[in-house]
Design a protein that fits this description.
279 residues; alpha/beta; Rossmann fold; Molybdopterin biosynthesis moea protein, domain 2; 2 domains; 5-stranded parallel sheet; 7 helices; globular
């Protein structure tokens, strides 16, 4: 069968599947969406970064049938999003969610790590609509055995070179602050809890604070944090309440506390950490 020039299997119902495309490049997101819609898909969500993808999956994870993610998607890369899925760090997202890595080069280290994380397919650009559709269909139909979260957590990282985001422009003197309308927190949300170095209060209205002079800054799941590492960005719950401020040293007692809080706050399952630069 051919739909909009794309050959697909007659026995596969694309309209029943929902997709999330994660890529910082608008033209590549559009290409992937065109291929999926051409095959018969009706629901294709977009995310421009790993952080945005996590927000989408935190809200719609149970609806997403397959994730297509650029392995160099900022700021952490597609492999780290795949790791979060497989280690059950995103509560509403099944750890068995099919996952396709989008890349412009078949780097051996990326392929090795992705296979260890049970990736379901690779789409290496340049690629045709037909090839992309077949890759996604194969990923959705593939059967495989899910392993323990600790096995996925232990897969070595493959670092990507992503420049830090630009600093927000300074506010002009005498210019009134912009006013934003925030939706009221859900009445079902868990009440914010105060942690050492953090404060339970209003949702975030300013850019996340970052800890200065850290090296090896990366995103990871809570179980991977080593005692003594430093929180590189403010940790907030899903409603935007501050749980822990950037710069906090993650000592054993504090990590235990975070583990206890994690059950009520999805965003505390993953965090940005780094090591002090002793030089």
């Amino acid at each position: 069968m051919e739909i909009h020039g794309v050959h697909v299997g007659n026995d596969f119902n694309w309209s029943k599947n929902s997709f999330l495309v994660v890529d910082s490049k608008a033209n590549f997101r559009d290409l992937v969406q065109t291929a999926l819609l051409g095959a018969g898909a009706r629901n294709v969500k977009h995310a421009t970064s790993i952080d945005k993808a996590i927000e989408t999956m935190t809200r719609y994870g149970q609806e997403i049938s397959c994730v297509l993610c650029d392995w160099e998607a900022p700021p952490a890369g597609g492999l780290e999003l795949l790791r979060l899925v497989r280690t059950r760090a995103l509560p509403k997202t099944s750890p068995r969610t099919p996952f396709v890595i989008l890349t412009t080069r078949a780097d051996s280290n990326v392929v090795k790590a992705a296979m260890a994380l049970d990736v379901n397919g690779f789409a290496v650009a340049p690629l045709s609509f037909e090839k992309l559709v077949k890759t996604v269909q194969h990923a959705l139909q593939r059967t495989w055995l899910l392993r323990q979260p600790s096995e996925y957590a232990s897969v070595p990282r493959v670092d990507i070179a992503v420049p830090p985001p630009p600093a927000p422009p300074p506010r002009e003197m005498g210019r009134p602050a912009d006013h934003h309308t925030h939706s009221a927190p859900s009445t079902q949300a868990v009440a914010p809890q105060r942690l050492p170095g953090g404060a339970a209060g209003a949702p975030q209205t300013q850019p996340a604070k970052r800890a200065p002079e850290l090296k090896n800054v990366h995103m990871c799941i809570l179980a991977e944090v080593r005692p003594g590492q430093v929180l590189a960005r403010d940790l907030r719950d899903k409603e935007g309440h501050l749980l822990l401020s950037a710069g906090a040293v993650l000592r054993p007692a504090l990590l235990d506390r975070l583990m206890n809080v994690a059950e009520g706050h999805a965003d505390s399952y993953h965090l940005w950490i780094g090591d002090r630069d002793e030089a």
